[in-house]
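**Paired protein data**
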Amino acid sequence: MKWRKAMKSRYSATLLAAAAAAVAVAAMLVTSMPVLASKLDDRIESSAKKSYVFKTYLKSDDIKVESKNGVVTLTGTVAEESHKSLAQETVASLPGVKSVDNELEIKGEHPAENSDAWLVTKVKTTLLFHSNVSAMTEVSANNGIVTLRGDAASQAGKDLTTEYAKDVEGVKDVTMR
């Protein structure tokens, strides 16, 4: 009988210790989740600001990046529509980003649709999203005819860049210089 009572007491103590350990583990998981999310958000914000695109193409723009549980909000101002799209695509491709709320505003006036300034913006945006096209391509337009200037690694690269520009709605023709 004493033996049975001792076993019952040990069994109860073991169950109590297991329950206490489970509660401790659950508490650690619950309290560490915000820390992990916070570190991820900090990493997203830092990666965006340190990215080649932000440091090279968006360096003159005033962009604020705020991440909350992987949902990124972009605020501030950019020089042109292509920069707004470029910032969004760059951040969206970062690890841990679930979605991007792009609240960036464009400085100054928006060019009229199908105007030469509008075509330049659309062509630049199109070219920025194709990694096989030189980002150093200069774009200008006159009466719907787009002129591209820059260096290409090959004739195939020039042809591809020309085709991308021709695909933009409103472009009448494309010349390479």
Notes: The first strand starts at residue 62 and ends at 68. Strands lie at 62-68, 71-78, 99-102, 105-106, 138-142, 145-149, 173-176. The chain has a mean pLDDT of 79.
